[in-house]
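Limitations
The structure tokens in this dataset are predictions for the assembled complex, not deposited experimental models. Users should treat interface geometry with appropriate caution, especially where small molecules or nucleic acid strands are included. An illustrative entry is reproduced here so readers can see what is and is not provided.
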Amino acid sequence: MQLLPGFRDFFPDDCARRNYILEMWRAVARRYGFVEYDGPVLEPMALYEKKSGGEIVGQLFDFTDKGARHVAMRPEMTPTLARMVAARERDFKKPLKWFCVPQFFRYEKQQRGRLREFYQLNCDIIGEASSAADAEMIAVLIDMLRGVGLGEKDFVVRLSSRTAWQEFFAQAGGKSEDEYEFFQIVDKAERNPPEKTDAALAKFSLTAQQVLDFMRSKTATAELAPILADLTARGLGGFVEIDYAIVRGLAYYTGVVFEVFDRSKNERALAGGGRYDKLLSLMSDGKVDLPALGFGMGDVVLANLIDDTPAAKAQLDAWLARERAADVYVVIAKEERRAEALGVVQQLREAGHRTDFPLTAAKVGKQFRTAEQLGARLTVLIGDEWPQVKVKTLATREEVLVDAGEVLAFLQRKS
RNA sequence: GUGGCCGUAGCUCAAUGGUAGAGUCCCAGAUUGUGAUUCUGGUUGUUGCGGGUUCGAGUCCCGUCGGUCACCCCA
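Predicted assembly:
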């Protein structure tokens, strides 16, 4: 049987690599004072239709359940988060700093950096309108990437704002109801040929040249300047660049938006996010009106970039080696001593040593080879010497005879 | 959703239209209780699947499934 397209088996090594990223995300988020939440993997289809109309429906894993409910595997977290916050918003002190590491499902054709199933870190700050929240959000994002060994040479946060484009559009005489259409044109202006952009902009009496000129101006607006100052004060200024080419595709973004790219631009965006100050009100039919911002970062592109960045790869490999290494391998040299060996194994395990041993009789040479392959630091050989055992440090090949009752204490001294 | 390229052993890959192979991995062994290397032996395939052309198809053609890259989209 083949896998479904875009889905992954996680063999132990794959699973360890995934956990490396997920554990780092959680560690950094907590370090920044974010708390973890989660929601259902399956949601009513209506939850996603409410926010975005119907166009994303084609990219959902949706079906009718046995109770005739139209349901969808979650493709994103924001609607769930909005529902949760709207339901119990008054229980929590503002601002909320929440994160989540959900698995998402999107029915799209897979390609590099995009599968039909993936993990995505979501960080959100809700109930804080000041630019300090934007800076905090970008800072945690930067440290997520630094946490896996990526540096200023490897990635850059491209910071922009829809507010800046709103002002640009308004000054050119544009109406606010046309804003979203205008944003879409801007979003594509770098990729499309100028003639095409000119044609699209004609109805607004604008030209591609005007848009591109503004896009390439690197001056921070009054909205963005304090964010840059905040990040610079943290020593993180070098990770951020103003880039008005970033507008993001979604309709609900209201102000600051940002995306993270690898410097070589070999990969898709590593992360993206921004302010969505009106969304909670929209999702809760006006019951809850709180400013909010957040970002998402997927595991697939990040894993690709780690693999392609030597320093990050080395850090990952070192972590993997530690992660899978056994601590002690108990060698049963005389099968008649298996009962005694089992006692020692149990004792070691109860003391917290990661311990393994041969389940069936095997030659001593083979057992040492297995110990080596498992990455064990020590072997405890049990045989004719009983009630003494031989403790060997594999790296140095040094071997010591120890009373069986003293093994634990001996290992304690060795570590 | 559209298009290009690709699909052979668990993995990496060979094989002019003419008997499906190598390396690696794994397993066993090479003086009774000590790890690398080395040596010997062994397991593994409806050549993704289904049709067609041909005396003969891994190879050519069509379809299909899967992979990959680009476009689209990107929550």
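Some entries come with short summary sentences. For this one: Residues 12-31 of chain A form the longest helix (20 residues).
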